[in-house]
Design a protein that fits this description.
By secondary structure, this protein is of the alpha+beta class. Helices cover about 30% and strands about 15% of the residues. The longest helix has 18 residues.
Length: about 170
């Protein structure tokens, strides 16, 4: 009984943290409306947990994920320019529940990272995180902190796990 109560309390704390959002600092969602024309970071859809930090986030290890970066951040992502990413970089992740959904391009969850001006959100490395429902998080808002606490493990690559360096080191 005590274990169930602790588990329930932990889940409620995580959910309430994810629900606390911040006012948008980055561009409107229309800024990534053409993302399929951007550089595709993932040579093929990823499944499993390639970074070891995924857990149940981004539809978990059974989902199929594809990542795109806009032209502003493409040189950094490809390893042709150094970190950090420049202001205006947008990284977008599609998560599909299964392979059939991927192949049909049906109902992907879209999560986005937007690189803000230096000093805009020091707590998140100046990134704004956008959930599939459009909610945004920066600073120490629940969503900003939730995303940052995982992405912090990729601080050496400006809070981004999947980039050319990742593929050079892990393929």
């Amino acid at each position: 009984m005590k274990a169930k109560l602790l588990t329930t309390a932990s889940l409620l704390a995580i959910l309430s943290a994810c629900m606390s959002t911040s006012d948008p600092l980055g561009p409107p969602a229309s800024a990534w409306g053409n993302y399929l024309s951007w550089y595709k970071v993932t040579p093929q859809a990823e499944t499993g947990d390639p970074t070891g930090f995924l857990g149940s986030v981004h539809d978990g290890s059974r989902a199929y994920r594809q990542i795109y970066v806009n032209a502003v951040g493409e040189a950094v992502n490809r390893g042709q320019a150094g970190f950090p990413y420049p202001e205006g970089t947008i990284l977008l992740k599609e998560s599909f529940n299964n392979e059939a959904a991927l192949e049909a391009r049906r109902n992907p969850d879209i999560t986005v990272m937007v690189k803000l001006a230096q000093g805009s959100s020091p707590a998140t490395g100046d990134w704004e995180y956008v959930r599939p429902d459009g909610a945004r998080g920066t600073g120490d808002s629940g969503l900003g902190a939730f995303c940052r606490d995982c992405h912090l493990f990729a601080a050496a690559t400006d809070y981004n796990f999947i980039n050319s360096r990742f593929y050079e080191n892990n393929r």
